[in-house]
Recover the amino acids of this structure.
């Protein structure tokens, strides 16, 4: 690899909490190419990119730029060496004009003052040079997402970037904006820039990238000439399960529908569709799984089911036991017998400073039996907490320990204990075992199956294929805000097949996906 | 009612509005700079108190009002520097740090005053100096306007000038651009190599600088001596003015003037037969009402924003 512009050798990154984000990763960038890094969420793409941009330093391994070994201590180091980054969450100051954002940190001066005219001139000149039309005097907060991204790209270019790293640049763009971005990237490539394109959208990778490095589980699965591999091959390398879990699942008849979603449509403030024509039901004693790469509408769907979308425009209905819940507040929805295990146990699922006991009663402290006059009923709460801690095998010093001091798995067990112990009729479980150890994960899975035996309807949203394929009675696949596949025997579905739907290569017809409503 | 109008519609009243606005305006400009850098300095009251005392002591010992002013500004800026050091270096919570500064100043100034003058109430025994007032040649001969605008304390004129200076600083200088970027999106600032901590240091020091000018005015202009707790809430009113002025330079200056007018009114009304205690609450009532109006409009704005950005 004599002609490698940037090379990473044997990169391993272990975070202080013990998570191995990258393991012995090799990456090599040729001058003038568009190089994709593809992989599922959690595959280690972001970490690799942060190392490349000096935001993280690797635990092991070396980084070479034009054959010379370098150590990047900060993003500024990377910028000085001609590496620019377009973050997924734009690094822009909303109330500033485009020109002000462009020159921040390297402001042209006139005496003691800031030379606005020069900033505008510089912005316009850069925009013309790279053929990226922006209005230098417009305020960034008034710009569309696509425009903001252009400003971000220009910001990197004006600082002399020859290598541009784009972190999931199309995630926030409309299809038209995406096409425009691709044209711009092609132009930049022709002008001699090198682009690192991080994505899990295979169509896009195929459309504009010359080579592709595939990552899975923190490792590199190899680098390929994009034209020599098919989408199917890429998908097979990206999606896969490492350990296969098996559970004994009793077959139980499914009862009446508890949750019915009918033709739900939701768009964001820019008019981009987030959910379109979502229809399905979950019945008593049934676990319905939703698979999909993150960011394909699962978050919005869960928000719609848990009261997070009140007042947002959209159409269609969401009914729990026949009652429309779209305009109900969270307490009313919970009072219908809905439990919710949120994806983010740190911020949404628990209050870190509060005790395990307090967290356990946070959904039921209003109930009569938890109160004694105007006060909380201390002894009853303590008894309940002790019983749950024992039943759910939460490893702790006692129910009074702050939940934030527990390990991730035990913290999650407390959340699961709270949500599963109120006899829910509908449980919405969002990534219930993300980041927990295998023992805790299996325990949580058993609990979900116990609830199922108790006739609870469960909606399970997860990126973990093991979990979703083994636990679900029926499986839906979401892609770009739509249901693109329905399976009634998930455990018989291969991950290769699932991958094709998750990555948008295949989709079933309306008749097949329509079965999600009645499950027949 | 007539007597009320007789009090307000005089050039004397208009003159006094500018006179009492001065310390509020200085402190509000200081609060503005630190707030724009995303760091709320609630230690204004304490900084003003320390600098008021320092001005008196230094001018008494050097027998120079100007050296006294310098001493006031240096000590006030030093206090802000201490606050910045604890907040930015040791990550003390800025509100706790601000409260500590205020309490330290309240007790500490009395202690030092007693040490130097043997009096716990005021500095009457110290022969401190006062900064001059200025008659503006042509302006003072214009009817109505003349008596209102001419003959003010030099720091009053300087406070008005400071509005322009702060406006220019925030909107037209690289430092101002960085201060605003740090306050609005520190990640963006950091991603282009702007040191967030360094900018916040500068902003806090500047806020201390302006607050101490307000403090110096209190003891070397508004009064000609230091008295215990003489800032009497002006630092807090300034923070309210900054907030109500929506963190813009012009808004902050105008709301400072509004609070100054309320203050002046309470002074003026003391000649009427209204209980003095009731009148004395006027500036504070104005502050509370102002903050309520501000909070309500902010909440509405936020709700509207939330609705449009919710996905």
């Amino acid at each position: 690899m004599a002609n490698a512009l940037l090379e990473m050798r044997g990169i391993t990154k272990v975070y202080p909490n013990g998570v191995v984000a990258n393991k012995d990763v090799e990456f090599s960038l040729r001058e003038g190419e568009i190089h994709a890094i593809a992989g599922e969420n959690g595959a280690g793409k972001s970490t690799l990119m942060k190392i490349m941009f000096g935001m993280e330093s690797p635990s092991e391994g070396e980084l070479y730029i034009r054959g010379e070994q370098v150590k990047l201590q900060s993003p500024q180091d990377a910028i000085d060496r001609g590496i620019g980054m377009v973050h997924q969450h734009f690094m822009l100051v909303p109330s500033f004009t485009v020109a002000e954002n462009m020159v921040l940190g390297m402001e042209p001066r006139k005496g003691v003052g800031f030379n606005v005219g020069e900033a505008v001139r510089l912005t316009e000149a850069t925009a013309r040079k790279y053929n990226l039309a922006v209005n230098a005097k417009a305020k960034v907060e008034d710009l569309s997402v696509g425009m903001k991204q252009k400003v971000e790209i220009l910001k990197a270019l004006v600082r002399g970037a020859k290598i541009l790293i784009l972190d999931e640049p199309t995630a926030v763009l409309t299809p038209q904006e995406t096409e425009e971005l691709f044209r711009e990237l092609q132009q930049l490539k022709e002008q001699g820039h090198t682009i690192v394109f991080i994505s899990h959208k295979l169509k896009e990778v195929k459309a504009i990238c010359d080579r592709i490095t595939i990552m899975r589980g923190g490792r590199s699965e190899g680098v390929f000439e994009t034209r020599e591999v098919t989408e199917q091959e890429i998908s097979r390398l990206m999606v896969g399960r490492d350990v296969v879990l098996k559970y004994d699942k009793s077959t139980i008849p499914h009862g009446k529908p508890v949750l019915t979603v009918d033709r739900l449509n939701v768009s964001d403030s820019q008019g981009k569709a987030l959910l379109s024509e979502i229809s399905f039901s979950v019945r008593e004693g049934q676990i319905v799984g939703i698979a999909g790469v993150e960011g394909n509408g699962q978050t919005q769907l869960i928000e719609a089911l848990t009261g997070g979308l009140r007042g947002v425009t959209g159409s269609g209905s969401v009914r729990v036991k026949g009652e429309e819940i779209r305009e109900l507040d969270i307490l009313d929805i919970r009072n219908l017998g809905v439990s919710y295990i949120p994806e983010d146990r740190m911020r949404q699922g628990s209050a870190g400073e509060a005790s395990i006991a307090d967290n356990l009663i946070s959904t039921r402290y209003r109930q009569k039996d938890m109160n004694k006059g105007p006060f909380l009923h201390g002894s009853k709460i303590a008894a309940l907490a002790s019983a749950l801690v024992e039943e759910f095998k939460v490893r702790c010093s006692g129910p009074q320990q702050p939940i934030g001091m527990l390990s991730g798995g035990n913290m999650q067990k407390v959340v699961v204990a709270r949500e599963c112990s109120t006899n829910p009729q509908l449980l919405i479980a969002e990534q219930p075992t993300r980041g927990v150890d295998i023992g805790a994960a299996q325990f949580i899975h058993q609990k979900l199956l116990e609830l199922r035996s108790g006739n609870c309807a469960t909606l399970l949203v997860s990126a973990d294929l093991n979990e979703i394929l083994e636990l679900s009675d029926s499986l839906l696949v979401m892609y770009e805000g739509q249901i693109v596949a329905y399976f009634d025997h998930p455990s018989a579905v291969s991950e290769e097949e699932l991958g094709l739907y998750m990555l948008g290569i295949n989709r079933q017809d309306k008749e097949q996906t329509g079965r999600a409503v009645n499950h027949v | 009612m007539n007597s009320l109008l007789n009090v307000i519609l005089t050039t004397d009243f208009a003159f006094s509005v500018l006179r009492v606005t001065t310390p509020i305006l200085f402190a509000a400009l200081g609060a503005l700079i630190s707030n724009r850098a995303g760091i709320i300095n609630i230690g204004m009251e304490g900084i003003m108190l320390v600098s008021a005392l320092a001005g008196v002591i230094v001018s008494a010992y050097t027998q120079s009002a100007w050296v006294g002013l310098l001493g006031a500004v240096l000590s006030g800026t030093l206090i802000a520097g201490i606050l910045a050091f604890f907040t930015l270096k040791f990550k003390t919570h800025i509100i706790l740090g601000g409260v500590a500064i205020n309490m330290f100043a309240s007790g500490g100034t009395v202690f030092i005053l007693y040490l130097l003058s043997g009096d716990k109430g005021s500095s009457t025994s110290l022969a401190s100096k006062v900064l001059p007032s200025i008659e503006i040649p042509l302006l003072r001969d214009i009817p109505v306007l003349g008596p209102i605008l001419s003959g003010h304390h030099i720091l009053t004129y300087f406070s008005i000038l400071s509005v322009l200076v702060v406006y220019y600083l925030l909107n037209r200088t690289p430092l101002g651009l960085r201060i605003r970027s740090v306050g609005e999106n520190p990640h963006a600032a950091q991603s282009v190599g702007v040191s967030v901590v360094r900018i916040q240091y500068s902003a806090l020091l500047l806020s201390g600088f302006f607050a101490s000018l307000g403090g110096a005015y209190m003891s070397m202009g508004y009064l000609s001596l230091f008295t215990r707790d003489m800032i009497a809430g002006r630092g807090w009113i300034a923070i309210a003015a900054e907030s109500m002025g929506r963190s813009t330079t012009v808004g902050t200056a105008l709301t400072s003037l509004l609070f100054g007018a309320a203050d002046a009114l309470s002074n003026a009304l003391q000649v009427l037969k209204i209980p003095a205690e009731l009148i004395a609450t006027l500036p504070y009532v104005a502050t509370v009402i102002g903050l309520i109006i501000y909070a309500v409009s902010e909440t509405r704005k936020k709700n509207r924003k939330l609705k449009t950005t919710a996905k």
The CA atoms of residues 48 and 144 of chain A lie 29 Å apart. The mean pLDDT of chain A is 89. The first helix of chain A runs from residue 45 to 52. DSSP finds 19 helices and 24 strands in chain A.
